[in-house]
Amino acid sequence: MYSDKVLDHFANPRNVGVIEDADGMGEVGNPTCGDLMKITINVADDKTISDIKFQTLGCGAAIATSSVVTEMAMGLELDDALAITKQQIADELGGLPPEKLHCSVLAADGLADAIKDYRSKG
Ligand code: FES
Predict the structure, then answer these.
(1) In the chain, which stretches have pLDDT less than 70?
(2) 3-state DSSP call for residue 90?
(3) pLDDT tens digit string along 74-98?
(4) Does 30 contact ligand 1 (Cβ within 6 A)?
(5) Closest CA to 40 of 66, 19, 13
(6) Which of 33, 44, 57, 83 is flagged as catalytic?
(7) Fold of 4-120
(8) Contact partners, residue 45, CB within 8 Å, separation at least 6
(9) Angle (nearest 5°) at CA 32 between 29 and 34
(10) Neighbours of 31 (CB within 10 A)
(11) Backbone dihedral region of 45: left (phi > 0), alpha (psi from -120 to 50 degrees) or beta?
């Protein structure tokens, strides 16, 4: 049902935690299942993501997608990180079962929320 990569990111999630005094923070929830996700980012002078961490209270797919999105976004320019789609996240993991595709929305939205927060601070 799940790819090896999903199971690996679920069992060994990357970049777990919260960055103290982060440049941007995103917090999103899925109203249907109640799962929650927080992403914190630091942004370098050249507008690339220099650090990123996540905390997810949710299902295995939510944790795996959160974990992989931190790897995908690390080092990216902010506009490129914002352009990451839920489908790209699922593809990076070798696919998700159709009924679990919505879980990747949390990861994409959390990252976008953190970038918006950073930009709102000017
Ligand atoms: S079931 Fe809630 S995000 Fe997966």
Answers:
(1) none
(2) helix
(3) 999 999 999 999 999 999 999 999 9
(4) yes
(5) 19
(6) 33
(7) Sufe protein. Chain: A (3.90.1010)
(8) none
(9) 45
(10) 6
(11) alpha
Report DSSP state, residue 15: S
36 ligand 1 Cβ < 6 A: no
| Region for 15 from its dihedrals, namely left if φ exceeds 0, alpha if ψ lies in -120 to 50, beta otherwise | left
Which atom belonging to ligand 1 lies closest to the Cα atom of 60?
A: 4
* pTM of the complete model: 0.95
59 among known catalytic residues = no
Alpha helices in the chain (DSSP H): 4-11, 60-73, 78-82, 86-92, 103-120
Q: Hey, where are the domains in the chain?
A: 4-120
